């Protein structure tokens, strides 16, 4: 049996359901299916089914070759980890432990390793093993693991590997400590605030309901320039004023992840969006935080928005026996969006009264960094 070993560094905590067990770490049962699909997609030039056909012809698949599982084994080991249990109600940027009884039955924790993990791969076929080894760096760059992985949790990367990609990224001028969970809060707050700024916008209020920081969504601005009005206006017009959506109204922000239920507190509405063929749709945007020389680079990896989310009708309800249909946008051009972000001027966007807020300072640094890294 041929074998290779890859040393893997953990860059951000993984949210793990077995966080307090000896030897708990990145699970081979999560890594291997993802690695299989990644390799099959490469073999098939982006089409997993074509890659499966090629792998079947080479006898690289397990069993009769009808399932997309390549014939090799993965073992992951680690010498030392630290963990912090997540208690119900804990608030951590990008993650909220508020799942009630279901959460109490399946508690989770933040798990970190200061020492590199070792991933051993065993494979009888030397050609397949070579392909796995060559794909490992790209694979770990394009994937995170565990709960809330799209928001940057569970980021791992081969130790000493180089990154040769043109993805946009923003840089933060600090390095968190694996033994100090609180030091990661600033990292995930940065991801959380930036994600809100591009998707739904930010509208913070104090206890007297006075706005303390306001930032209009960049998706809203991006589509406004294309004469498309987003769903928030259509929802308010329909449920407050009784007027139907305009011809150019579309569901915009759910291109970055479907929120099928929303609590509109000011209006006391429970907004729901329903489509019989689309129950869940995760954000196509993956945040990949990697620590280099005392600084964190957060890469923005955008997967292609699937056609099933374009020009699709959702029925929007406010929970009071009233509803109306609204289409999603029929196109999203990733390149044009990032160029729009590159040229974005935050001083022209945020009113002067909100520029002393810490989020303005945070976002200013992020957009300055993106202006340098977006091609």
Looking at this protein, list some descriptive labels.
375 residues, alpha+beta, Alpha-Beta Plaits, 4-stranded antiparallel β-sheet
What does this structure look like?
The chain has 375 residues and is of the alpha+beta class. The protein has two domains: 161 residues, Alpha-Beta Plaits; 186 residues, no CATH class. It is built from nine helices and 18 strands. The strands form six sheets. Strands 3-8-1-9 form a four-stranded antiparallel sheet, covered by helices on one side. α1 crosses α2 and α5 packs across α9. The longest helix has 16 residues.
Which structural category do the helix and sheet elements fall into?
alpha+beta
Mass-distribution shape: globular
Strand order of the largest sheet: 3-8-1-9
The residue-averaged pLDDT reads 89
Sheet having the most strands: 4 strands, antiparallel
| Number of helices, where a helix is a run of at least 4 consecutive DSSP H or I residues | 9
Q: How many strand elements?
A: 18
